[in-house]
Amino acid sequence: MSHRPAGSTGQWAHSGGIHSGGVQSGGIPFGGMLAVAAVLASAAMVAGCTSPPDPLQRLQRQLNIYPEYSVVLSDMETSGTFFKSYHHRYTIVRGHKADGAGNVNANSTDESVSNRDGAPESNVNENGVNENGSEGAGAETPNSAGDSPGDGLVFDTETTDWIDVSRQFFDKYEPMLGMVVLSRGEQGKVDTANYPPGYQYVGNQRYGSWRTDSNGGSFWEFYGKYALFSHLLGSSRRPLYRSDYDLYRNSRSAQRPYFGPANNYGTRGSYTKTSNPTFYQRQQVRQRSKSQKFSQKVKSRASSSRSRSGARGK
């Protein structure tokens, strides 16, 4: 039975079933306690047989209408006392088709990612991206048909509500907070590689260019209309150097997750900790609560031990 986080406030919304913490042991006959134990065991068996489906498979089907997209794991949470429930939220970067004037094609935006728990939050940015752009430092230049940086696609972002996931799925993606977990590129190929959002557009001359700093270092700079990618990468804090991009390409070739040049992305990354502080604040609150409960148990046991020792000494 699932207790789902309500929005991003950290409060739980009960979705039906057994309330954890609603049973008191005082005054319950032994037979009643056995009955409660049987109910809890049955609920555990049912919960184990009804694991939530893979949300990325569902999102892949729903996002098939978009020529390009990236799904970023933007938040994760657990809830419940007796039986744990596991939840994800995703931020989706979508590429819409646009007309020659750069306006979003209405046919590509009428449909939204649906069939999720709760309504999505949408933040549209007028960032056009050419659907014919290619990844890599050797990206082709605009062609004679009149293509120029920004023609073809317009990018926006959408954040889902909380989605229930299985324990196994949650554990698999636990290191990937703030990382791309599903994407579709210019060739229509769906990819499950994990890397910081926006890296797939680095090196593509339709989205930006390589610049040289005062020390002769080569770094990537997105065009102003693609500020969305700079924001997702946090490149305003540190330039994305060519050596970083080379490490990314090597990781992709080796089919390994890429967590940035100093592992500063992902759940344990320094950038993720600054870009998603609420996740870590919840972890701190939960850890303090556990520590307080443990301390209270130790004090209670010590007090009971002293009381029994005093009684024996009389």
Descriptive report:
Strands 3, 4, 5, 6, 7, 8 and 9 form a seven-stranded antiparallel sheet that branches. This protein has a three-stranded antiparallel sheet with strand order 10-11-12. The model is unreliable at 8-25 and 108-148 (pLDDT under 50). The chain is globular and about 85 Å long. It contains eight helices and twelve strands. The protein has helices at residues 30-49, 55-62, 106-109, 167-172, 227-233, 242-253, 270-275, 277-313, and strands at 3-6, 11-14, 68-79, 85-97, 121-129, 153-159, 163-165, 180-184, 190-191, 208-212, 218-222, 240-241. It has a domain at 55-273.
The poorly predicted ranges are 8-25, 108-148
H/E series: EEHHEEHEEEHEEEEHEHHH
Strand count, sense and barrel status of the largest sheet are: 7 strands, antiparallel
Query: Rough shape?
Result: globular
Structural class: alpha+beta
Number-wise, the strands total 12
Helical segment tally? Answer: 8
Distance between the termini: 51 Å
Q: Radius of gyration in whole Å, from Cα?
A: 25 Å
- Helical percentage: 25-40%
Q: Mean pLDDT score, rounded?
A: 74
* Percent range for β-strand residues: 15-25%
Fill in the keyword field for this structure:
3-stranded antiparallel β-sheet; alpha+beta; 314 residues; 12 strands; 23% strand
Structural topology:
Elements: E1 3-6, E2 11-14, H1 30-49, H2 55-62, E3 68-79, E4 85-97, H3 106-109, E5 121-129, E6 153-159, E7 163-165, H4 167-172, E8 180-184, E9 190-191, E10 208-212, E11 218-222, H5 227-233, E12 240-241, H6 242-253, H7 270-275, H8 277-313
